[in-house]
Amino acid sequence: MLYIPKAATIRRVARFTQMAALPPSYAIPAHTHLVYFVHDLNDPAVARRLAMLRPHLAAAVIIGFRRAEAAPAQLAGWKVVDLGRTADGRLGRRALSVLHRLVTISSLAPHMRGATLIIARQLEMLALATAARRGYARHAALVYECLDIHRMMLKSRVMRRVEAGLLRQVDRVIVSAPAFADAYLRPVHGAALPPVSLIENKMLRGELREPGVVIRPAGPPWRIGWYGVLRCRRSLLLLAELTRAFPGQIIVELRGRPALTAIPDFHELIAEAPHMRFLGAYDRSTDLAGMYNAVHFSWAVDFYEAGQNSAWLLPNRLYEGGAHGAVPLADATVATGQWLARHDAGILLHEPLAASLTQFFNQLDATGYAAASHAIAAVAPACWVDDGMDAQQFIAALGSRHRG
Q: pLDDT grade, residue 209 (50/70/90)?
């Protein structure tokens, strides 16, 4: 059940984040002291963002909540400040945790010392970051990292007003997909929206192992890999039905973290589909190449928040699969499919998806697969893998912006 905080609680958060006047200008030094406010210290994407920014950082402190029993002692070699445990998927309850920290904001003062850049990952952390900046790092640039549009933002006018108030204090917004800005932020906030930097969920150069050209023998059996956070029930049902329609000819491998709040019968559905296998968690730093090199296709479809966040995002698995030569299967009508269409790559599916999948695999042969594989190989590597330019352009954009 979705927890929605009372309007009075939301207003209290807003009051705590009202900002006093900021300095008339700022500049980002060549080597930056970062304070990074994150909603989940256990999220591997946090360490990846730090690794991306590392060439431009002299120091960093990571302040945040955790979803697991314990927080990491360090991230990317830098100090972690653990604010306590919160629950996944419950923005309202996380807001209450932030409110508690706002009341005791002075405890963060020692960790803000020397900050020149503050990044807040997700909206509730932006509330905390604005208050900490006001009190203890008034000359620091403030960046909002907007990586999802929570469904509550689309339902609650009060939450959008809170977001608007916080955005007035922000110097730049990071989005991981253009549609987050084009379909939500710009229509909602208009000219009040700060400048936006697009930093896609590409693989980092240091994550990519260089195995050489991987020759996948053509199927059948054709192998599909679905990796990451497994939260889309419709995807699971579609893939299970596909394996039943092509018994022994299609094998689906799943790895990662199943979201049992979204698919409570995940393990039962896997057990009922003899050609689907859940292989458990994986280590992103060591396992990606082996996972993707073992499959012909990567599943890049998501209906978890259909028509909203799921239609706008560009998932990690898009870039991971492409970088390793696995052909993405995607919905043609959403941002992922549109990205692939612009690059003349991938398999673009149309509704009804079950029929589209059946038609594709009925017609698939070695020649068709070779053509799809060559199209993936023809995409410029920088489209899948960060070549270092994203961070460089982001820091340069911050350094060139001045308040007046």
A: confident
- DSSP E strands in 108-156: the ranges are 117-121, 141-146
Measured CA to CA, the distance from residue 289 to residue 353 in angstroms comes to: 28
- What stretches of 192-260 show up as alpha helix (H) in DSSP? 233-245
Asked whether the CA dihedral 68, 70, 74, 80 is positive or negative, the reply is positive
Q: What's the CATH number for 7-199?
A: 3.40.50.2000
Residue with tokens 């995409």: 379
Radius of gyration of the chain (CA): 22
Q: For residue 402, which of 216, 179, 141 has the smallest C-alpha distance?
A: 141
Find out whether 160 and 185 touch, Cβ atoms under 8 Å. no
* Domain positions in the chain: 7-199, 206-386
Provide the residue type at 241 as one letter.
Answer: E
* 361: its two tokens: 């695999």
Residue showing tokens 């253009």: 178
* Residue-wise pLDDT tens digits, 233-274: 999 999 999 999 999 999 999 999 999 989 999 999 999 998
User: Which two tokens mark 387?
Assistant: 């070549």
For 200, 248, 280, the CA distances from 49, given in Å and listed in that order, are 11, 40, 25
Question: Which residue from 306, 238, 301, 299 is spatially nearest to 273, judged by alpha carbons?
Answer: 238
Which residue in 243, 201, 269 sits closest to 361, CA to CA?
243
CATH of 206-386, one of 3.40.50.720, 3.40.190.10, 3.30.450.40, 3.40.50.2000: 3.40.50.2000
Residues 44, 25: Cα–Cα separation, whole Å:
34
